[in-house]
Amino acid sequence: MTVLRSTVLGARLIRLRDDEHWLGRLMLAPAIAYIALLIGFPFFLALYYSVSDITVGGRTMSYVGLRNFLAIVQNPTFIMALKNTLTFAFVSQILVLILANVLAQALMKDFRGKWVVRFLILLPWVAPISLGSIGWLWMFDSIYSVINWTLQAVGILDHNTRIMWLGKPALAMASVITVHVWRLLPLATVILIAGLSSVPQDIHDAAAVDGAGFWRHHFQITIPLVAPIMTVAVLFGFVFAFTDMIVIYVLTRGGPYNSTQVLASLAFFTGIDGGDLAEGAAISLFLFPLLVAAAFAFLHLARRVEVT
Fold first, then answer.
1. Domains defined for the chain, CATH in brackets
2. Which of 148, 184, 151 is nearest to 166 (CA)?
3. What is the pLDDT of residues 274-296, one digit of tens each?
4. In the chain, which end has fewer C-beta atoms inside a 10 angstrom radius, N or C?
5. What would the DSSP string read from start to end of the chain?
């Protein structure tokens, strides 16, 4: 009887293994568990906090509805952080997309030392961003800045002139955007290289035979073919720009005068440093519907372009 049950159980396991429907679900189970435990739980906890009056160290918590959301939209600092977030995201992604296209096109060519160049380009992505930001903090220092020293050495700046890169609002925003572009450029470049590698060589050869120049070849052939994967790169870039605060935290902490404050950093300073977990959670969740809508729009656009 025991042998018969073992045989039946083994036959069922074999059928389950060969069933693509259940096998697919089984393979997706670890990813679903990861999302549910490490992403889903904090997200729903933030939703719960955003409609309460919880504070760090507080012993009581009560439901307050949308009071926290109404409070933040009336806060001038929040409005400035929202504008800074949009500026930070859009400007950085435009620069990343342009530079990634240039680098990807260059790295598709064969030349001596190609692997060294690829290694140097990937280095900002694999290195800890906190260490890289500290290095940039030193380079942007008003006294010991290597950038100021170089400008003085080539005669662009007077030896008594020092630019306060992180002390003036416009320069501070330009500085954090520069570091963010430096960080995300390797990821976008690798994604675009993968897209360019997937384009059949016959298409390029046919374009060369037809006499297509570089610009016509690039904008009418290459870009339309890699548009779906380029859309994915832009989507990843926007998600990082809207949700990451390491560069802002290390370089400026939102200063000067909140000119580089973004929603992610404002949520941290409000909820953790300020102790108001409820308002911090409301700030962090403010852009969630917009990000979801943007993600669906980008993915839908990528699918339509790919089908076309």
1. 75-307 (1.10.3720.10)
2. 148
3. 888 899 999 988 878 777 777 77
4. N
5. -HHHHHHHHHHHHHHHHH-HHHHHHHHHHHHHHHIIIIIIHHHHHHHHHHTB---TT-S---B-TTHHHHHHHT-HHHHHHHHHHHHHHHHHHHHHHHHHHHHHHHHTS--TTHHHHHHHHHHHHHS-HHHHHHHHHHHT-TTT-HHHHHHHHTTSS-TT----TTTSHHHHHHHHHHHHHHHHHHHHHHHHHHHHHTS-HHHHHHHHHTT--HHHHIIIIIHHHHHHHHHHHHHHHHHHHHH--HHHHHHTTT-STTTT--HHHHHHIIIIIS--HHHHHHHHHTTHHHHHHHHHHHHHHHHHHHH-
Q: What's the pLDDT tens digit per position in 173-231?
A: 999 999 999 998 988 888 888 888 888 778 777 877 777 777 787 777 888 888 888 88
